[in-house]
Amino acid sequence: MIVRPSAKGMTLHTMFYSNEIRAAESVPTDKIEVKDQEKKLAQQLIESLAAPFEPQKYRDEYQENVRGMIAAKLKGQK
After folding, report:
1. How confident is the model at residue 7, as a pLDDT?
2. Phi-psi label, residue 2: left if phi above 0, alpha if psi -120 to 50, beta otherwise
3. Which domain holds residue 17?
4. Is the CB of residue 37 less than 8 Å from the CB of residue 10?
5. How many domains would you assign to the chain?
6. Which residue pairs from 31-40 have beta carbons closer than 8 angstroms and sit at least 24 positions apart in sequence?
7. Per-residue confidence at 69, pLDDT binned at 50, 70, 90?
8. What is the distance of C-alpha 54 from the center of its chain?
9. In this predicted model, what pLDDT tens digit does every residue of 19-65 receive, in sequence order?
10. Which of 6, 28, 39, 65 is the most exposed place for a label (fewest CB within 10 A)?
């Protein structure tokens, strides 16, 4: 998960595949005011969901299927 600053608070996003991840420095963090209650709630959510990240457990089945279809087409299959 990732918590991003937004115009009216913070936004929580679920996982991305490795080819979709950008460096933290590329995310704009304009001056945004976050209420103490929002920070506390975000911290509680993060702590309750925190676990060691094991990227090898996840795969992008959609991309795998598209690549499989492309490979089949290249071999002349339908």
Report:
1. 81
2. beta
3. 2-74
4. no
5. 1
6. 32/5, 32/6, 32/7, 34/5, 34/9, 34/10, 35/9, 38/9, 38/10
7. very high
8. 14
9. 877 787 777 777 778 899 999 999 999 999 999 988 888 888 999 99
10. 28
